[in-house]
Structures are given as structure tokens and as C-alpha cells.
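quick one, 425 residues, struct below
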Amino acid sequence: MRQGEKSTLVSFWKFSEFARENETGELEKKTSVLLLYYRVFNVEQCDGLRAIYGDDRKPVNPIAECESIANHMPNAPRIEQHSQAFYRPSADIVGMPSRSCFESPEAYYSTLFHELAHATGHKSRLNRFEENVTDHQFGSESYSKEELVAEISAAMLSGNRWHFARDSRQFRELPAIVDHAPKIRFTVDYLGCIARAKSRRFHSRQNSERRGRTMSTPTFAFPQPLAEKYRPRTIADFVGLDRPKRILSRFAAHPYQSAWLFAGPPGIGKTSMAPALAETLRAELHHIPSQQCNVANVEDVIRQCWYVPTSGGFHLVLADEADRMSNAAQLHFLSKLDATAFPPQTIFVFTCNTTDGLEPRFLSRTRQIEFSSYGLAGEATRLLETIWQREANSTAAPNFARNVKESSNNVRDALMCLETELLAS
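---
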């Protein structure tokens, strides 16, 4: 920094509307104001930074063939400049960083073609997105298929540009096309596993019929524990928990940015309730496991929450076993749960077995819901009986009520015991 240089004050204002219950239990609209300010210096006020970090003012060298492909897309979506590349179906918008953020023009157009390929699935174009498919999480089958479409499309369009330019020797290398290869290979391998699994199930049934013997249809698409296979997907699916289900169902009808603490014994659905709430809200879920709840991971997740959610609605941050998080992470969360620093459109869910390790200041910033195992026995017994009827090949059923009792109404433990009984049957 040159001696005598003066900083410039930069301010950031953000107004957010949210709903909050008043003393009578009715929801009232409130407005929060976030004001941040920074004192910054321009790079031109410093000596030596250009040599260290380079000149970010990269020349813009558009490629005519690629510009033509993008500009002549029929019924094209709106393209806006953002900090990240994305396609948002709800608004039909493609976000792209500045061209200067990319290492080469080819890398820029490769990314642009990828996002425009996603846009072809919009209902106003090819209507490729299935409305009844709810699992669009990273790694799911629907997510992988859509990424495969985008990667292959981008690779083909990049290859098309190479075909145009190869005679004029303008295209010296193919970095953009080569970058697509491992992504496509990974996605194809993943989908190949799914296809092979389906094929094995089909041929198993076919061979069984040829031998004249009946064979029960495998119930696992992939081997998985019963606790995961029968994990509740919606709020109403949970066993017992009448009060938590009632509270969260009403909250889901009129959501607002807030922080919640699910407290209670293990194995009754505290952690599973957060993804179910996120599914009901169509929220973007961020899960911080207990062993990874440190300041760095917390800050990274909260930084993501300042961006618009991919669903267009809310972010939902799940911090599992909050009573085991480090003191530094707890204090970091504490600073973010303050009204002036609360990320917009964000819902925090903390789970814990006991609140003994949590600071009173932390507890005062969360809405606590007690998850009790009281009254679970009847519904848990009926759940085990239903699962046994679906999974068992024999009629000699165990004592489901005793199973639940010996598990102390811990549904997860009861399912693991039932799994052992199924393997022994």
C-alpha cells in the first residue's frame, strides 16, 4: 500500500421480510435490515500486486462460431452475469460469471453451453424435467441423467466449434472438450450401475419362471439397512412425535427464516425430521455432521446461504448433534443467529440428545422442540409388523412389541433388531 493512500467506504444494505408469531400465536410480517460496511483500497493504490496476482483485466476474445451458436438458440433463456454458473428453471435464467474469470475463451463457452443445455429442459422448450420426480439431490439418478445431457451437449457444441475452426488453424488445442470426458465417464459409470442392477433383477425373475419356481422380487434396489430404506420422507410419515409433527406442519405452511433445536433421545427421528422438513419446503439442504461441525465448515455453509437457493425458496442448514460441536463452532453459530447477521431465507435446525453442553445464549436464539419416545410403542410395533410382512419370506414372526420394549422405544435400534431377525428367517 502506497504511503498516504486513503480508503473508500463501501456499504451493503439488505432488507428482508419474514413472519414471526406474536403473543396471540398469529403470524406477523416483519422487516429486518442488514447493514455491512467495509473500508477498501483499489489495486491501483498498491505496488507489486500485479506481479503477484497477475492482471485480472483479461482481454475479451469472443469466438465467432460459439457466439453464433449461443445467439441463435431458439426461445433462449435470459443470460445474466453472476458470481457462479447456473441454470434456474423457476425463473428460466442462466447465470454466468464474467468472461475474465475463465482461463480461456474455450472454457467460458464450454460452461455457457453446459448451462444452455440445462435450459432446453424447461417446460417452454423440451419439457424434460419430470414434475413427479422429487429426488434431484447430487448423485441421484435424475440429477445424473440431467448432468449427462448437459455435458454431452456441451462437448458436442464445443466439438462443433472445433470442426468450424480446424481448417483455419485457429483452434490449437481442445482443453474444453477434454475437460468433459471424465465428467461424462463418471456419470455413465453411475447410470451403468443402475442399469445393470435393473437388468439383474429382470433376468433373475425370468430365470425363475423358466425353472418353474417362484422367486420373490428383491426389495432392495441396492443393499441398504432397514432404517434407511424405511426412513420417513415426509413429516406425516414419522412414528409418534405428534407434537413435533403438528408444530412443523404448521410452520411448513407459513415458513420464515428461523433457528430450531430438536432435543431428545437418540433413534426417534430428530435428524431425519430435518430432511423431511426440507422436502416439504422444497428447501436446499446443507448437512453438517457432528464430527465436521467446525468454524471452517460452518462459515462455508453460511456463505452458500447468502446465494439464492437452487429451489428458489429456502436454505435449510442441519447441524447434527449440536451438543458435541466445538465451542468455537457454537460461538460462530451464535454470531450468525443474531438478527443483524442472519442469512436471508435460511432455516437452521440443530439436533441434540441433551442441552447441557449448549450455552444459554445459544438456546435463547432457537425454538426448542422436545422429541419424546413416550407413546411410541404402539405405532413402532405396527411399523415393524408392516415391514416384516413386506420383507419376510416366512410366516414365523417375532414378538414385535418385545422388540420395541427391549429397544427402549428407539425406533432405529428396533429396526436393526428386526433386520437381524429377517436375516435369520
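The chain has four domains: 8-53, 66-188, 227-370, 375-424.
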